[in-house]
Protein 1
Amino acid sequence: MSSEKRPKAIDLSHHVSDFARRYALSPLKGLQKYYGKDTIGLAGGLPSPDYFPFTSVSANILPVDAFPLTVPRASSPASASSSAFGWLWRIFGGGAGRRDDTTTRIEVPREPRPDDGGVNLAAALQYGPATGLPRLQKFMHEFTERVYAPGYDNWTTLVHTGNTDAWGRISKLLLNPGDTLLVEEWTYPSAMASARPIDARWHGVPMDNQGMRADALREILAGWDVEKSGPRPRVIYTVPVGQNPCGTTMGLERKKAIYDICVEYDLIIAEDDPYFFIQIGEFVPKSQRKAERESPAGEEVSRFIDSLVPSFLRVDTQGRVIRMDTFSKTIAPGVRLGWFTCNPLFVERLERIGETSAQNPCGLGQALVVALLTQWTFDGYIRWLRGLRTQYQHRRDFLVDCLAEEFELSPEPSITTSGGPALLCAYPRGSGSGGLLGKKARPLLSFVPPSSGMFVWVKLHFGDVPDKRDESDGSVLTPDRQFWEKLAKAGVLVGPGWIFAPALGAPPTEADRQTGYVRVSYTPSDMETTRQGIKIFAQTLREFCRV
Amino acid sequence: MSSEKRPKAIDLSHHVSDFARRYALSPLKGLQKYYGKDTIGLAGGLPSPDYFPFTSVSANILPVDAFPLTVPRASSPASASSSAFGWLWRIFGGGAGRRDDTTTRIEVPREPRPDDGGVNLAAALQYGPATGLPRLQKFMHEFTERVYAPGYDNWTTLVHTGNTDAWGRISKLLLNPGDTLLVEEWTYPSAMASARPIDARWHGVPMDNQGMRADALREILAGWDVEKSGPRPRVIYTVPVGQNPCGTTMGLERKKAIYDICVEYDLIIAEDDPYFFIQIGEFVPKSQRKAERESPAGEEVSRFIDSLVPSFLRVDTQGRVIRMDTFSKTIAPGVRLGWFTCNPLFVERLERIGETSAQNPCGLGQALVVALLTQWTFDGYIRWLRGLRTQYQHRRDFLVDCLAEEFELSPEPSITTSGGPALLCAYPRGSGSGGLLGKKARPLLSFVPPSSGMFVWVKLHFGDVPDKRDESDGSVLTPDRQFWEKLAKAGVLVGPGWIFAPALGAPPTEADRQTGYVRVSYTPSDMETTRQGIKIFAQTLREFCRV
């Protein structure tokens, strides 16, 4: 891709909000051109590095191959939950001696050295520019080129403190009061949280098994009534991979179709992609599962990158995609570090917005992450990501296997649209073959096993459970709220579906009323606990639906 | 203070901006009440701590008494610049063996332990609430009570990622478009940078040697013309200690007077106080300088706290002060950590605003700072701050001594208003006694040596230097701009006065035109370099003024 001649970004300055437009370049920036190697600086309020109490910071880190690329066959939910946990700990070197054997020590030294890219405490503990440590900048740029290969030439990157910060800044960059933001039919609450104070609205675009539907998007834009609904939307917020909460993943063709509509109607795409590297493949029932074949030596890196659904950046020839990357799911959320990739005009404004909010990310976090990546190398980091993918694949399989132990799971390919993975319907055990024509034709729940991310989006079919009154405030409790609370009282928390609804407060139809959604995550708890949670979940649901 | 009965904060909800008002409580927060010790969590998108590649993080830290409480007499600028530097390095344990002898190792372990207050990698590397690690919360609260002793009862604290983030959030909390923010006559550019995108204006309040003048504030408010200037100001942004750029410090009486006006006119005070612990006492000429007497044993902590001009919080009986504390000047800027102290209503909104911007501060930074403070203890941290104070006092003295070597410095107490420290006027060496009545009565520069902070605000008296045209764009270059550029080309950067002017772009009067300001900082460069810089500064100024 990099050898091809790529077009330049087009002028999209009309998308900058009034708020973002008013930012001025800091007058201090004007001074930077005067700084030379031998300049005597008496201008700034920087404390002397001699006064920083940390004289060195170091960490022990796992090796890049801490996690295997194949999952042992033994890890069935019934027998192996505890042994699976033990297996994990063996792999991690969880034993007292083992961990020290396999970890490496990285250090951020006090004094700068030539070509250290700012990875020293004198720089990392000092005020820094909102653009981050030089070596981190270099990493972000090279990683983006090699992994995402944007479709235009003059894209650029900018560090941020995680995708929440990133989307907060993007919403300020693009949205004016009264604007409508397009989101997926079910979406991450944070998307709405950032739009609300700006007095922007949001509108859900219907989804299928690949996430946002291109035809539905076009219909909304073509039929937009400016009189009734205000300015036509200019911004899409999307989680294209492992969508939150639905777990869907957009294929390349879908991305192209949506991008083309954005070109036609002049929209900007905010691509929030924390789960990009958790592309774990389609779910395969346990009996048919095979270990992934190893890549031929020397081809591991390119084969892995090629195996991933490309980013929206790949189809972006005009600079209308703002991609958000984060280390939260690949290193750790607590480092609060990630980066934007977009056109230079937007990056310049995002930097200004950052200068009066998060400012530069914590230097200790930056330095330790960069030291880790330097120690690992690019190829090593890819190996680490492959190991993580296997872990999450295993956890996804494990959760679905747990559900298969509690219910009779039956695929219903006829319900699936647009060629995605099949819907699985779950019937009470012993209710016969299930299926749509059987006597007990109503499934208790249904879901599509996700091929990316961390979540199973489970539709619950309650049947004919009546509404209840809340004892404390007299409000109506629909069945989904009754069930969620019953489950919580039984000691299991799942994500309540209604918090992901863009149309919060819309009265449910009768059909809606007898269904509900929960987002079940296979990542936060260890396997034994997850299995226990699914057991309680299943039992509570059976009781609730009186089957 | 804590034993007295203090009043509750009054209702100040009408000060919340429309922007801040629209934030909603995240629906996810509603789930927290269901979390018990044995709850099985399948709700969140938290990665398993097993997948964090850091298995331990540690640091070497200086001892609390790394810096002495008295400065050796030998450190005169002429002889001791290099030896002073050597002395600093001796103190720091800069020698190869020495540093390890005196530093202590702190570690953030991987596994949680009971009562560790979140100082473990499982918590620090995970998503965290915007309120920070529990032990950090505890520290901030106790520190605020002991050091600032707020004048009302239900004040509360909230972590932020440095005072830039803090003021960014406060401006969003309080300012509506069209509002006018009151600032000091010369102010920190960041204050204006955050107000600008909101479409708020700013208005400078005249200052004297104690900073913002209470009488001038009252005059502005009493005479405010709503028709002409929009809504009467509701917010003051102030740097009361070691003001940036002027270096002035407000005494308690001044703070009381300003606070009373804020009660009368219903204003909120945003107290940006990064230099609070750099209260270094009035400047004493070298010949009269004596080493500070040691505090009696057992009284060091309370004597130190009592020696500091109290915060605005001390006089706040209604909850109308939002104080910003930061670790940037006391630990290191790169940790990006600080905290708000204010009424619970404002803190709740500031937390919401933080949730969609900086989110929780970097966990590695939080954990390392808390581990450091835990190791040091409260009393130890106070000892560290006392050592820092001595360092900055020494640096301030050194800079003024350097100026005294280049110029004939003469105090002009008659020019000083309101009983603050005396103005020093600098005359060319050999021009006689200087003084207002002498032949060469015009000083080249004048300044008040600051009793706090990091800056000397130097007024330059150019005499009759003509304007010039900029060769590149034909714009008029007033003498202050000509001099600043000439100095930069000579290799010395000082803070150009005009970037601190709230009334940017106002045409200067003829008297203004022949003066200018520069902010000279004694903190970023080592002493030898500082001395060299002042030499070049003095020579450049003499040449520029042809004396």
Protein 2
Amino acid sequence: MTVRVGVIGTGMIGQDHIRRFTDVVTGAAVTAVTDLDAARAAEVAARVGATVLPNGAELIHSPEVDAVLVTSWGPTHAEHVLDAIAAGKPVFCEKPLATTPEDCLRVVEAEQAHGRRLVQVGFMRRFDAGYRQMKEVLDSGSLGAPLIVHCAHRNPTVPDAYHSAMAAQDTAVHEIDVLRWLLDDEIVSAQVITPRATSKRFAHLKDPQIMLFETAGGVRIDLEVFVNCQYGYDIQCEAVGEEGVVRLPDPASVSVRTAGRHGTAVPQDWKARFAAAFDTEFREWTGAVATGAEPTGPSAWDGYAATVITDAAVRSLQTDGTVVTVGMKPRPAFYGGTA
Amino acid sequence: MTVRVGVIGTGMIGQDHIRRFTDVVTGAAVTAVTDLDAARAAEVAARVGATVLPNGAELIHSPEVDAVLVTSWGPTHAEHVLDAIAAGKPVFCEKPLATTPEDCLRVVEAEQAHGRRLVQVGFMRRFDAGYRQMKEVLDSGSLGAPLIVHCAHRNPTVPDAYHSAMAAQDTAVHEIDVLRWLLDDEIVSAQVITPRATSKRFAHLKDPQIMLFETAGGVRIDLEVFVNCQYGYDIQCEAVGEEGVVRLPDPASVSVRTAGRHGTAVPQDWKARFAAAFDTEFREWTGAVATGAEPTGPSAWDGYAATVITDAAVRSLQTDGTVVTVGMKPRPAFYGGTA
Amino acid sequence: MTVRVGVIGTGMIGQDHIRRFTDVVTGAAVTAVTDLDAARAAEVAARVGATVLPNGAELIHSPEVDAVLVTSWGPTHAEHVLDAIAAGKPVFCEKPLATTPEDCLRVVEAEQAHGRRLVQVGFMRRFDAGYRQMKEVLDSGSLGAPLIVHCAHRNPTVPDAYHSAMAAQDTAVHEIDVLRWLLDDEIVSAQVITPRATSKRFAHLKDPQIMLFETAGGVRIDLEVFVNCQYGYDIQCEAVGEEGVVRLPDPASVSVRTAGRHGTAVPQDWKARFAAAFDTEFREWTGAVATGAEPTGPSAWDGYAATVITDAAVRSLQTDGTVVTVGMKPRPAFYGGTA
Amino acid sequence: MTVRVGVIGTGMIGQDHIRRFTDVVTGAAVTAVTDLDAARAAEVAARVGATVLPNGAELIHSPEVDAVLVTSWGPTHAEHVLDAIAAGKPVFCEKPLATTPEDCLRVVEAEQAHGRRLVQVGFMRRFDAGYRQMKEVLDSGSLGAPLIVHCAHRNPTVPDAYHSAMAAQDTAVHEIDVLRWLLDDEIVSAQVITPRATSKRFAHLKDPQIMLFETAGGVRIDLEVFVNCQYGYDIQCEAVGEEGVVRLPDPASVSVRTAGRHGTAVPQDWKARFAAAFDTEFREWTGAVATGAEPTGPSAWDGYAATVITDAAVRSLQTDGTVVTVGMKPRPAFYGGTA
């Protein structure tokens, strides 16, 4: 049975995911789209044989739509997700789930009231083969309890519109999600310190930043966020346990020896680096939806946690690096917690 | 438009490819299957909602079938492929195309008579991301003309049924195909020399073997085939050009430091190593079939060439390592040659 | 002309350095030794044909001694070094130069009063080929200004006597020295945070620790000190500049593929890891002494700086991770400063 | 006790070794030198405080000389070595021991007649830390019996004077020696095949060449010799055993990520690559001489074997790649053999 997906938001990300449903993932079809830009929606719809609907609400409630993909402008996410829950339909929401913790909690509460999981949030790192191997190693216990994680998130350049808080909100948020999952632990405090800024940035931006997180279990995480590193898109992650260290691999790439150097290419953007992770993310989500199973990817609670933790990091940045406690609600049993 | 695929042969390989058409590749459906073992065919058909047909001929000519996948017993391949050409239907044939050069030539001639390419042979290395990167580097000319290629093809163990000629026919054949493509050059002679045999083999087997090939352009290839290397499935390939060297990567894998060692896991079989290559192979083939384009993967001529070259290698092995000239016909213009 | 070296302290380290003067470094001879343990001194002296002298003072002033090596108990270092300065003789002092900043300053002042450099302190990382390559890369400017340095200093295990302050005093002190040199910058603050402790430690010890340093130029350094990591002795250092990253290599070591793993050995102690650096350290020092040149290795000022900075780190550790400003005097012109 | 070394031949290599005895190795002094170019000899002697002697014979028999280093023109080696044996003095002879097998045998016989080993031949690879680690792994038996060795010996460029036979005589000779030692096995046949020649060579030169060797024990060796590879000096060696593979490391070198590439520098000449091996070679030789022990490095027999095997390789090259049997005498018990 083919899953009929309705897509809210046909911008760059939306189109890329539509391509996945069409060309990469089996068992799904995009049957309806909507966008504030009606012309763009029409063009995309024509390409894949979908219907254009006037707005998110009509799309969500359309009998042609089994499941919803939300890739619209961030501030509209919560409303569409709440609407999908009201309609009892599975919904995949690109990050962020909502722009405030309060709105995230409204989703969390609505989903609990509904009684089963409908929401998956688009954190794709959990679907990357390398992170999954790391998790296998950590979960096996062969390295003992994890104690420290060292991470780096580097990007060649960012445009002028990228401001200092986005280092947490848009960039570090990926590590925040994947580390909570990797460690099966909660982040309880955040601190952001700012090294000398690179001269290769727009003047208003604090870049690089070093973010320090502590988990409930006492694991310490240091994360370098450097979004104008010039040389490439480079994701590093090393977890230190009581009996050893496991490290995320760089992507496999031919090595070349020429002109006195031996080396490999560094990817230039996140699309190349995480293409396979995106494919797996949508393959598994579609599989779950098709069989009526609850999604196993990042939950509404994970979306809430990411927002609260990034808020704490931003507050630390704005207060010259004070340690900010993450004010997270107790995790409900519904989401694997004890509350 | 969904490509309706008929599958001849529902053994292990056949089932694995059926899974690909069902779960991995979009735009295809398996609509008919056949197998000498009717019970097995019925079971597989039931799983994917396909029709069981009594034999290859009926399957090929069925109006429910747009394209044919041949994964039956090797000696039956040529007949099915010829039949598919007669029916004017695209056919994907697992290696070998045929068990003799003569039968391969019959396919080659039938396809030429038909006037456009219908046949693709199942050499999947050309679809591996690492080999494709190697080809990009070589084709770019940045390393100058290629001069030498060093290869190793290692397998943990083989069963008793694996005999010495299979080192060329079943194992080296993958390098033979991928190197002809990588170098865009033809192999003109073969020589097989036999080191001391490993004690970890069945007594009748010559293992390891070193195969030496020369191309028309003068490139020399050395290929270690070692099918009882115990430690893992390990594929190495290094091309030496006038200004540098390019090397196939090992698969990306987390590195672990523990107990005095720093290292990564070695894959244990070809399925894990080339899973993504198989997926790409069928994705691209399905895409070509769906749009009515000629396939771009290994052709019937490549299937013929592989058979003639492996025959030369086997003859060298059987004559104590004499250099055996490959007696290949001139390549027809139809297949990019000048004859 | 052979440099006649007198050695104060013939314990394990002293003997190892005596072996260097005897077997590894040309142009030097150990002519006199002294030790509180007279029997040990006699035994060592007999082995290398040196005279035993009753105490440091007599050794320093002996006409048989051109230069002094201080490898006695830490609290005695300052006195011997001051004595050597008074005698106008070059002196190599194992770390620490002194156990308090005040005593270090006495040495610094005495040396300035003497008018030329006589003192070298035994920080051997600056002589390691890998760190020297890092410095070359950083000094070349090809990576732009340095912004961040990530380090790890891991040791398999430590004995019960190793206490929490030693993580800074005995372990991190090596990074503190080498990073000041690598960056040509001064450390101005220190902060120590404590992850969950490993279960593989003596109960009184805080292990691992994460030390954060800031330099006058705004470079931020994070240093993991983990002295019960079990798996090996592992030194990591990565400097992030505006246009790229340079990383200290692991020691060259054969790689082995066997039993499903591909890997290399990790060194088990600092002696194996830095043997060549120690050799170079003494080769260069002896060369300078032989030609009457001032030593170019770590100076008395560097010894003072290391003590002040480790003190700041210890204070942070003892105050739950507060940021502690390093209260260093202005650097005199004599030592390359502006004061 | 200082070993007084007399040096015959003060060219580039001679001077480099003299520097080792002076600056690097303890326990030796160069007391006498001689050279056809008397002015050069005088200049070198003045630098190190040695006496100039009129010729090799006087140097060898001088009472000021305990041991002899032969670094003169190749064709004169045998005569000097024979003279040193006649004088009963240890002699270190740079490769080749002699330019013909017959002359090598004269040395072998003279040394046997003398009754104990005096001769060491200058193959330095056996002193390289990486090769020694390889030998440890192979000798441990953990990989089972060795079956195959893959090698490459690459050099950036060679001058016009370098001719095709030198690929065996001057270049491959290092692998020939180190592999005989690594495998503890004898090479019994040689075959040289010639790939397409690089355009980056002088026209008379066959470059690259692939050399195939077989040992008495059945191990097969393939060795790529490529002396105009442009990109660097690159030595590769991989031994394949029944249960695994061990590989020579590249030299440790900082890795740099910049401008889209991640990589390390490749050494540009053999001096940088094997500097430490040369140091160890002379350190161990001096140590043996000083204690009156027989040298443990490459023997006169190894010098003979290298000459016979390179001759076989040259003959194969000159006869279009025929397999040439190595006509080696049985190895005398004196040299660890059974004859």
